[in-house]
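G., the chain you wanted modeled:
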Amino acid sequence: MVTASHEHWPALRATDDKTAQYYIELLDIGLGDTPAGSTWRETMSVITYFPGRGSFREEAYLEGKAEGKAEGKAEGKAEGQVEGEAVGLAEAVVRVLERRGIPLADARRERILSCTDLDVLHQWLDLAVSATDAESLFAEGAPHPRT
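Predicted structure as tokens:
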């Protein structure tokens, strides 16, 4: 019987990360909810008694942490850009109506400013340029935000 001991770390470290992670996860699943599985998960935990020494566990943890941070940052940045674009478009719709002297009821202003649907906001901006009143932006057949 092959045991999961520290003598196997060099073999895992010598292989590419994807393959090593595959076998680590396969072993974890195979051991299941057994005492050996508990020992394996404890051994593979991120606690290290020698931080900064480049142990296998520490390297895997730091790599996963860095990947997660980068993914989260990219997702947050993309979401922020979309939200920012929506706010800018909504403010532009209101400004065009105001500059054209078209009155805008508070409820309509709030509807425009709370919209996050970029397609609708673009269409409202196009309509605001030639609208004779604010109601024409919301008339039947006019764009409505997706819910």
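Helices lie at 9-14, 17-31, 35-43, 56-99, 106-114, 118-130, 135-138.

Shout if anything looks off.
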